[in-house]
Amino acid sequence: MPRDGALAPTCPPPNCYDAEPIPEAARAEIERLLASGDLFRYTSENAPVSQLEAEFAAFMGTRYAVAVASCSAALFLSLKALDLPRGARVLVPAFTFAAVPSAIVHADCVPVLVEVGENFRVDLDDFRAKFDDSIAAVLISHMRGHTSDMDAIMELADAKGVPVIEDAAHSLGTVWDGKKIGTIGKIGCFSFQSYKLVNAGEGGVLVTDDPELAARAIIMSGAYEHNWKKHPGLQNSFVHWQNQLPLYNTRMQNLSAAVIRPQLAEVPRRVRDGLANHDYVAAKLNESPWLDVPPALGPETRAPDSLQFNLKGDWTDAEALRLQDEARARGVGVQVFGLSKDNARAFWNWQFLGELPELPKTRAMLMRACDTRLPARLTRPELDFIADAIVEAAAAVKG
Ligand SMILES: *Cc1c(COP(=O)(O)O)cnc(C)c1O
């Protein structure tokens, strides 16, 4: 409900949940695949999954891309490809999605959670403090597309000779100092799950320039027997690894690739519009004395499809919960990460890890950080609707 004196909304609340339609070009290819039944990536030469891998590698400017079932599978295979010993300790930001520490556990490694600051990025003091000689790998999750300081992280990791994996699930199109996110560490992992920039329902891909890592990941993804021959440019590496590695069978199938391939051409438009939308709404929120959208880091050009903001000043939990209600009453979904029950992005809910560390900075951030969807397809009036609803909701609680 609008506050007294405010105009009643003249348009219905924008739908922030529906995806964009899949490009028309996917239909003919899907028809062809359905008619032939050729769905397995290794049946025919030059199958859609192989074509996607070639196109995605070209898009990212990497030597190799390996398409798999999900970003979580890509993260798991990345850790396995690094050949880390059982029980290896892996640094990972404590602000991420539960599937990320889960991939570390799945790879028989131990996640070491690092504090994340109010700006949603890795707290470098805690990162340095926890980066002792027991750390075998670093997995940087660019949560919600917020890029941590990759210069500082790479400098430290390189000095110690420790490999970095980038969880770029939500960072397709993000650029750091002229470099594409996902190409800065040894391996980058992306998601094609429906809430990411490219939507195939499910799917993932890893990129790397390292032929040994690529070959190992390909075999373990399920390139059994001599199916590796359908991946170009790796023959020497494959011969070495044949029959030496387990097959985890987490391949992508051709229908997914048929849905993804025509969307790659849409990425620049989605990135451009997503960033413009985000910055437009962020500027309006930052005019409120009660709201704060942290700025991007200097070297970072973001590719957001959602908006995160902090509740500024003193807010009680009850007030933060009321903000959610007030925004919902105005037609906009806002979630305080730490205040929605069982949120998979709140580290204290990752009870599968056993004893959880105290992470006061990350906890404080999660208790006041808000999440709202902001798809690239929204129009200016829809963005105004969302921004006004959130600003009015904050004023209704605090005004
Ligand atoms: C969505 C997401 C994942 C998981 O991706 P899936 O493809 O669903 O496995 C991992 N990390 C981040 C930051 C994500 O946003």
From TrEMBL:
PANTHER family per the UniProt record, alphabetical = DTDP-4-AMINO-4,6-DIDEOXYGALACTOSE TRANSAMINASE, TRANSAMINASE
Q: Which domain of life is it from?
A: Bacteria
What biological-process terms (Gene Ontology) are attached? Answer: polysaccharide biosynthetic process
Q: Which UniProt keywords apply?
A: Aminotransferase, Pyridoxal phosphate, Transferase
Q: What is this protein called?
A: Aminotransferase class I/II-fold pyridoxal phosphate-dependent enzyme
The UniProt record lists the keyword Transferase:
yes
- Per the Swiss-Prot or TrEMBL record, the active site comprises 196 (proton acceptor)
Source species of the chain: Paenirhodobacter hankyongi
The family classification in the record reads:
Belongs to the DegT/DnrJ/EryC1 family.
Molecular-function GO term, any one:
transaminase activity
Q: Where in this protein does the record say N6-(pyridoxal phosphate)lysine is found? A: 196
